[in-house]
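Sequence in, structure out.
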Amino acid sequence: MRPAILTPLFASVSSLPGIGPKLVKLLTRLLGGAEPVGARVVDALFHLPANVLDRRRRPKLADAPIGELVMVEVVVERHRASGGKGPYRVYVHDDTGDLTLVFFAAQTSWIEHALPVGERRWLSGKIELFDGMRQMVHPDRIVDEEGLKSLPLVEPVYPLTEGLYPRQIQKAAQEALARTPELAEWQDPAWLKAQRWPGFREALAALHSPETPQVVAPDSAPRLRLAYDELLASQLALAMVRAHNKALPGLSVAGTGSISARIEAALPFKLTASQVTALADIRADMAAPTRMLRLLQGDVGSGKTVVALLAMATMVEGGRQAALMAPTEILARQHLATIQPIADAAGLRVGLITGRDKARERTRMQAALKDGSIDIVVGTHALFQEDVEFHDLGLAIVDEQHRFGVHQRLALSRKNAGIDVLVMTATPIPRSLVLTYFGDMDSSQLREKPAGRKPVDTRLISLERLDEVVNGLGRLLQTGARAYWVCPLIAESETLDVAAAEDRYAHLVSLFGDKVGLLHGQMKGTAKDEVMARFVAGDLRVLVSTTVIEVGVNVPEATVMVVEHAERFGLAQLHQLRGRIGRGSDKSTCLLLYKGPLGEISRKRLEIMRETEDGFRIAEEDLKLRGEGDVLGTRQSGMPGFRVADLDSHRHLLAPANDDARLVLARDPELVSPRGVALRTLLYLFERDEAVRLLRSG
């Protein structure tokens, strides 16, 4: 299905001249690639230079700046071998001064051949001072007058892997460029002209053979051109998936409102304006004849669970079942505990399925799901295993799965043809990342906190004042308060000087006795549940934990959050941790303990936490400080990886790429116009071709 014109680019790099099996392995390690092909020509093509060697500066030795790359013309004076394990030295000069060349573990014969005594040579490298004398350690190039003619004045520098030499990747990139055909232009001509961007192949040629150092910068015209190509391919693919989902027949469920009314009457608060708006969007999606695929972003404590319950109630009113999937058993059981009393009051039948259910209970629950005697089921990923059958599933809600990729969303929706899917996250996501990773979905936001929520007093405290913090915690415990104490590691590390949860637990137990509990991800599920239940009941007053309590844990009586070594946590993590308190009517305090001196990014991160509780602002700041890869976590299947585009540098191109993609599909949904056909080539080139297959199947 791939256009034939692209075939040379998707061949193995072994098809390029001079690349044998050993080099293929090294290139595959660097560039990626699956067996049996390994790295492909296109991988070498899109492996762009990260920097350059600028050899345009050609001073005399006396004028050469120290520590900067220069090209100098010298006469070889004499050689001096080390006679042992020391370096080999070659003494050279020009008419203004002397220079010593230093070689470690180099072949003597090669040095003698490259630098014959009495001959003139051009050297490229950095000059340093050693004992007041100028020296150059391992020049990166040594050429004569003839060699100088073919030496690039500005040489691209590529990211490498161990065992691979710069000239090998340079040669592979040049050969890949030679294989690249002239392709029909897929960009809008007016847009290209307005941006003053080169053509696709011209941009690649400029980057692989830069004439100035500025060419390889993220904001150069060639780099911007290629970044926009990749972002457009990504946005077009997501828009096509979105169009495909919208075209699929949905269930068209319109609730009666009877159960929802009983739920709202049982709530101790009124819905916020954004909850009302989000529910209206969700119910409109469910009533439409097409499938719902919506992202619900709720800041910490904004009431996503209530919106989820009311959405599920609407589906049950329409005669179908609903499922709520949480990422961990702790969260699944907590959702059940939150939902159960309200659901009972409204007459909803609720069940639980997790991976640790006993066989008899699981069999009973599966039978109830299959015969329709359960309206709503809460659980973990176990909900969507093959042996779990629903009587008539209409709505699947996925909680806290902001890494839940496009492929997983498609697989989930296949559990029952046409079911509606709602993905929820308490991690506010910057708009650019919503476009990038959730462009196939509609989006709603919950920005307000429910009435009665009090602001959290956030303080930054040096770890040098740890004893004061512990003493203050002791006074608070005497008033009946409950507190979290979060550490970055489970056990003590030999390499990192950071608090370990087990050590801090032992320390606090020695002071406060059996009122202190320990919770971390390596504990067995039953042990975690028991500790959490004791903290909820008040038997435990201090819960020492790792970030396992980061998301979703709800204990309104907890009013203190201590985060030890807060400088080691990301902004989103800190925001989530702080969100575990301030859930009741009492004043809450978050203490961010840091070890100085702080680096610039760590200091900014902690200051932002002190300044604001707005999760959406925090998310944008986190993106600026850390970049998209860290904000969303490690890439998982279904999440697009970018090879050319860098969201830190090219974020401003996302919105126009998104607009362009939507406009293209509005005018040419089958991509059959000349530009549409060229855009199909773009999708294959950047490997977003699953969208083309959807187009064909639909």
